[in-house]
Amino acid sequence: MEGANNPDLQLQQLPPTSTAVFVNEVSFSYKENLIGALLAIFGHLVVSIALNLQKYSHIRLAGSKDPRAYFKTKTWWLGLFLMLLGELGVFSSYAFAPLSLIVPLSAVSVIASAIIGIIFIKEKWKPKDFLRRYVLSFVGCGLAIIGTYLLVTFGPNSHEKMTGENITKHLVSWPFLLYMLVEIIVFCLLLYFYKEKNVNYIVVILLLVALLGSMTVVTVKAVAGMLVLSIQGNLQLDYPIFYVMLVCMVATAIYQAAFLSQATQLYDSSLIASVGYILSTTVAITAGATFYLDFMGEDALHICMFALGCLVAFLGVFLITRNRKKAIPFEPYISMDAMPAPCSLEIKPPPYQQHSTQRKAQCLALNKC
Hints:
Elements: H1 7-12, H2 14-60, H3 74-93, H4 99-102, H5 107-119, H6 127-153, H7 164-171, H8 174-195, H9 202-231, H10 240-266, H11 269-291, H12 300-322, H13 351-368
Helix pairs in contact: 2-3, 2-5, 5-6, 5-12, 6-12, 8-9, 9-10, 9-11, 11-12
């Protein structure tokens, strides 16, 4: 009995208890990361299927006289419903997992689009031709899947509740203020060269998109996290920071879409997909690391393996998009300059040449006589 009341023995029982609490917190963090990753993968997969369904409906009605005939098809409306469902899944994933883990998982949409394109291809190929043509896609899909696995396995574990106090604290922290200063300077310089100097390289345009997109995902995570907490009972909608983040999310998304549409008018979609994915993911991970401190407390091995997963996913997406067919503009079956003139039409020479032609004919007639 005296040994049980000894203070030294009581102090020795504290470390196992604290360790058990730490293990429970880490397992809960892993559980949230898994939920967020699964929601992101599900959302990107459904969005890819939705886009292909809508594209299929547009291809079927390509020769229709009614430009809005696809509104009457069930395929197009099914694609719209699936797109909204997928975007909802991606939006919800930001509330559960770190930003640096969710952003690179957009490679799932590229993988799904490549697989859907290979399965539903209309042309018939011989096995040798098929493998030779799609070997880059197969290798790219494999590398992207390996990179996604590394991202999910070695992703950052630190994740805090998106309360109004936490978001405000991160917003005024010196790392994020320094990052914002650098990003604003770089954005203004790129915008000046793009608008005033007509420097329309694809890296310039997509870097503008990536800088805006980094702010979009930062605000999306804040808005999604505060909405989830409000649904769970911890009301966060009475904080002004929620509406500030909401306005920034909508504004950056609109301008991001505007620059992206300008890029699609100048460059091929496959090139935009690969370069845009690499730039957007890199800038977004940097923004998440400075605003939400995603890699705080992570060891060097996890950070290196996460970076390796990003590089492998980048290479896989590049190989997938490199093998896509380039869009061929519409060309008429008969060229207008090669079309024969109607027989009923007589092409007459200009008036100043008619008299000379008549005189030559008269001279020839006289010589023959």
